[in-house]
Amino acid sequence: MKSSNVIARICGALLVIAMMAPAVSAHEYKAGGMIIDHPWARPSIGTVKNGAAYFVLDNLSDTDDRLVSIKTDIAARAEIHETVMKDGYAKMAAIQGGLAVPKNSKVALAPRGKHVMLFGLKQKLEDGQSFPMTLVFEKSGEVAVVVKIETPKDAGEAVDHSKHGGGGKKMDHSHGHDDDRGS
Length: 183
Ligand SMILES: [Cu+2]
Prior knowledge:
Layout: H1 2-24, E1 28-31, E2 34-41, E3 51-59, E4 65-71, E5 75-86, E6 89-94, E7 99-101, E8 105-108, E9 115-121, E10 130-137, E11 141-149, H2 157-163, H3 168-175
Parallel strand pairs: 2-11
Antiparallel strand pairs: 1-2, 2-3, 3-8, 3-9, 4-7, 4-10, 5-6, 5-9, 10-11
Helix pairs in contact: 2-3
This protein binds copper (II) ion.
């Protein structure tokens, strides 16, 4: 009786671990004290040749660091961008000198904020697929990550536009990147 109780308890514990597994195996990368959490990109819309990648940088170390550049074969060029408001419009601009990631702090790259801009995509970003990218840090060095292509659950700008009866053409501008080639 007693031993079956123990087994039941172990099974219960294993079940809990199994249920937690998706969170534990979260898609994150580590280089020294730098964590790169969940690199992802939106699927391409139509024939738009530009895209953006996002992730959260968590600098757990006691040293300031800086994301200086991005290497990837998926695009002709990758830049670290921020979105700034100018004359009431959101405009993108390259972050000069790289993105500072101060010690013991988190910096999030997210839609409508900082992002990795991918210019001249060599292939369409298809939902559910992924591509390799290398982040180059001043202190933490080069970190290879896999960027998952996914449609964010909460987002819905592109979806909303299509729902409102706009055709394929209208959807392009909702991506927010194709009209910024020059910046
Ligand atoms: Cu951009």
